[in-house]
Known about the structure:
By secondary structure, the first copy, chain A, is mainly alpha-helical. Chain A folds into two domains: 1-74, Multidrug-efflux Transporter Regulator, Chain: A, Domain 2; 75-127. Chain A contains six helices and two strands. The first copy, chain A, has helices at 3-10, 14-22, 40-54, 59-69, 76-110, 120-125; strands at 29-30, 36-37. In chain A, strand 1 (29-30) and strand 2 form a beta hairpin. The relative contact order of chain A is 0.08. At the A-B interface, helix 3, helix 4, helix 5 and helix 6 of A face helix 3, helix 4, helix 5 and helix 6 of B. Chain A binds a DNA duplex (30 and 30 nucleotides) through helix 2.
Amino acid sequence: xNISEVGKRSGLPPKTIRFYDDIGLIQPKxxxxxxxxxxxxxxxxxxxxxxARALGFSVQECRQLLALYHDDTRASADVxxxxxxxxxxxDQQLEELGQMRRTLxxxxxxxxxxxxxxxxxxxxxxx
Amino acid sequence: xNISEVGKRSGLPPKTIRFYDDIGLIQPKxxxxxxxxxxxxxxxxxxxxxxARALGFSVQECRQLLALYHDDTRASADVxxxxxxxxxxxDQQLEELGQMRRTLxxxxxxxxxxxxxxxxxxxxxxx
DNA sequence: CATGGCCCTTCCAGTTTGTGGAAGGTCAAG
DNA sequence: CTTGACCTTCCACAAACTGGAAGGGCCATG
Lengths: 127, 127
């Protein structure tokens, strides 16, 4: 499989696949002309990566997840711990974002939004 | 006022203030020795920036907000439109993050988290 | 066989919003 | 005069790609 084929099948753009190769997340073989050759196993890793990234895991965490995945002697507790740490980070982001949203929505509600210059949003920022 | 003083008063680190100077968000005067000299007005702009950034506005949006703030003929509708666009972005992020959270929490719940290798989290990623 | 068009490669730069550090000038106190 | 705390600029790095340029490969058609 060449890179555009595996891109279609994994749902990742070729640029991203090259990037993952650069940082060692995959090690596809090379053809005599220098083209990358992807095995089913490479494709599998890439699809795994796409899903882990979609869940918001960092690339470093994806590296760890892949390592755990390929370790038959892993403890599921280790995977769960990784996921819990990530969940805590998501919860923190949700809280911060929610606070922003509340403040911003209040300010928007209090602004007339007409042609006059008076604006509670700017007044609050300049407070 | 020198940079560390205005840093304390605005709540921004000197490095960040220099950065805002570099990108033209502020234009402090310079002393004969090359040191930046900050006026009350510079301080005010920096505090404004800190609060706008804390609400999640991008640096570009902060630039526009500052321009609106200093424009006596602005329409509050323009400020409100900027804020609404930003709010929509926050809502989108909240939704994406909420979806991630749900999926991740479900996976975590389904994982025994013991010393055995079997793990629904990895199974889902490898699906 | 040459040409076109699409694929592949590497390398460099840019994105965003700063942060860390090095090298060197300045200033006030002792 | 020295010491320590400032200040300056400049370069590099962070995350996770994305865009583009320059150059080579491969296949099919004329």
